[in-house]
Every structure is written in structure tokens, then in C-alpha cells.
User: Fold F-box domain-containing protein from Eremomyces bilateralis CBS 781.70.
Amino acid sequence: MGIFEQVHEPCKPTLTTILSNPLLLHLISPYIPLPSLIALSATCHDLHGLFDASPVPYRRLELSPLRHAYPPPPRPLAIGGTEQRTQQMDDSLTASDFYSAPLRGIFAQLSRRHMLNHISTMVLDGLAVTAELVREIICEDRFNVRVLSIREVKHLNELALRQTLLYAARPGRADGALKLRALYVFGGRDPLEEAEDSGRGARTRRARTRSPLPATGRPAPRSPHLEGQEKVKEKPMKSWYHPSGRILPRRPDVDWATVLHACEGLIYFDAVLCRGPRHNPCHSLLSSPPSYLPAAPTPPATLTYLPPAIATIALGHGCTSCTSCPESPAIYGSSPSPQLPLLAPPPLHASTVRAAQCPLGMLERWNATETGYESAWPPRVYARCEACLKQRWCERCGKWWCEECYDPGRGGGVHGGGEEAEHVGVHDQGGQVEENEVTMDEEHTQPMGSKRECFGCGQTCHSCTKQFIRPCRTCRNEYCVLDNDGSSATDCDWCRYSGRRTLDPY
Assistant:
């Protein structure tokens, strides 16, 4: 062809070519919702055959954003207190069948498409999930779910759920009968990241989400998922590796500790058992010694035995005195897996316990300078229950003392020696405060322990009490400068109120 030889430009890759790569399909598919995957597979024969031939696109199922996954809202009551019904309800329909009907319908459609058995990670946060439906997911052969998330679900009978877990983890079960490996049930829903919208498309999306007014003049009912998003966005993200304090949104029932102990090594949860010395009968002291031992004085409350309990407080660092703990912290990679909690959110590209417990992605977003403690590698989990930290943990600054280092008599006990280490305020001519804090010669001479001086602050240590609890110069009563609205640095809110004072608060 000579100098007139035609030069062919390289062909641009198509979507089918990109998704034909197994690695790219594995990385992209978790970010595409299931309805979009089904709609995409219906566009051409190549994509339809590609998705049907590989189980990778359907290995993760997240139904929280789907509006059809929520049960219908309650209908308004007509005259006489009867509910308006458009169809006759079957008398044999139970409450469990009614609330789980949307999810059962979705599972039936996935089963007809031969997709249900490919799902290994299932996220049902915030939906109406009953204990009977969880039993089917765990025990029936048509499901192959290994990671299940049912955080903040509705209409869940926890007693029946605990019985299901105990039955699934029974010693006499058949080999391969238990497929579930990770269960998210204690934590809160993940905070949703707001996408930065701009341009005409953002205005169109905002206009579509605006709730219209029907002819009745009342606003139309909103989707339950939109209401859940607004609540979740307000919650800060907490982590077991940081000094997050009370990390669980609500206190678990005491019977959950028995379930976690029975499922140890079989099913992993997003919470762990407290491993404090008081939960170990060999390390703790009984309240009364056996008859064959000589009589001894009653041990302090910090050494008495406690029944198993779930750790609900993330300390983030070791003891203030020894920088460690008697039971040794749980370290990812070296400690046994049952000592490590599952981290939120559930993993995207894997359905294993190791991926759910890995803290590497979380540590990339952690600025160690904000915590006030030096970062340590590898990351460590310091978690205790509230009974193990009674009067030994400050809820404001996060200091805590272990059983071996805690000395109630040092400095005069819990906030003892208050006469010599008390906050003193001297008022000058202009009404300002000259703070004269009596400093200790050495830091180790400060009193140990915590005490509740303010209901808003909770249990606080000596340093936090000295900083935020101050005496009023007028009435001489102590008040908190943070929780007493209307107070100043010198006067409490009652003394600064200039209006009429009455004993009746209303």
C-alpha cells in the first residue's frame, strides 16, 4: 500500500470487554445495585450471558436502599376505628409473614433467576426482618450466606434469634450445615456518604426527592429508607480501635453473652466478650473464701467475680499507669479471631471473617494526633464492660486504670485529697476570674478513679472535674460549666438569671 497505507486506530474498549475481565468484574460489581445489574444484563445477549455464567456479580446483596423491601406503611383509620382495606387479608397470615412478605418476595424472584444461591454477603440493615426469616437464611439449603448484617432492623424477636443461633451452633450438627460465619447485629447502621452533586443533574435529583403535596393538602408519605438516612447521617462513626467510649447504640441483653460463648469460633459478631480479670474465676477472688481456707477480709469490689458480659466500651489505649491491661489487648493477626470484633461496614469484595475483622482500611482515615495518644502498630483492641470499669474510667477524657494499678487510697481515694487538689477561683476588681489551680509536684500523685459529679458528663476523673466543675461565687454551690446552660465562669445559671424566680419549673 506504500505511503498511503491506512493506519487503524486502536479500538476503544466497550463495557462488555471491561466486564469480561474477571478481576474488573470482581471489583466493580459490589458498587452496582442489584436492580441495575438485572437491568444491565437485559440490554444485550453478551452481558446477559456474562452475568449468568459467573456468580461474581450477585455475591453481595444490599436491600436497604430498595423501597420495595420495606413493608407498606399503616393505612389511616376510617370512622369507627376500623382500618381501610383494599383487599381481604387472609386470617391465617401471621405477623411474621406480614412483615417479612417484601423480603420473601424478593428472595422468591432471585430464586427463580438462580441468583439466590450465589449470594454470600447479605445486608438487611433497617428493614423489617423477623426471627423466622433469619432462621431460614441460616438453616435452609437454598441460602449460602456467610456474612449477614441485620443492624437496627424492625420486628425482630431477639429471644427467638438467640435460640436459632444456639441451634445452628449445636455440637451435634451435620458437617457443612452451618454456613454463616459473620453476623452484624449489635452495632448501628453505617453513616451514608453524601455525594457532591453539581449542575443540572443535581437540580433534577433534588426536585425529584422533594415531597409533593397531594390534593388533601397533607404531605405524601416518605420512603422509610429516606427517613433512616437522615437519622444515620447524624450518628458519628465509631471504631473499636479508638477511644470511642460506649460503642454500641444500646446495651445488649445479658443472655447474649451465653450465645457469644456458645458460638465462639463458629459465628463471629460485631461485638466481643469482656476479657477482664473479674470474668475469669481463676484470677478473680470470691466474695467469701472456701471453708478449707483461712478466713480473709472481704476483697475489694474490683476483684470480685462477674458473670460473662459483652464488652460495650472501646477504650482505645491501655491503662493510664501501665499503658496495658492484665488480659493483654487483642491484636489483629496474632490474637485468636474470637477476641476481635467484626468491623463496620461489612466487606465489599470478600465474604470472610478475616476481611471483616481487618482494621487496615479504618486506620488510613484515623488521625492519631486528634486522640492525644501515640499510635501503636499493630492496632490493639482494648474493650471492657461497664461493670469492669466502675469508678475507674473517665467518660470525658477516656482515662482508665486497670485492676493491678488502681489504688483507691492514692491521693485520698476517688477524687480524694480534694482539699489539696481543688479548683480555686479568685475574683479580681473587674469581675474576671484568676484561676489558681494547685498543681501537684508529680503526675503520679494525682488521685485515681472517677466519680459522677455531673449527670451530663457522667463519670469523670480528677482532672476533668477540676476543669469543668466550679463553685459559684454567689451561692457557693458547684456546677458544670458545660451542661449548665446560662452559667458563666464565675456564677451558676440560677444566680445569673435576672427574671422572676419561682420554685415551679413550669
Summary: The CA atoms of residues 57 and 88 lie 39 Å apart. The mean pLDDT is 76. Residues 101-112 form the longest helix (12 residues).
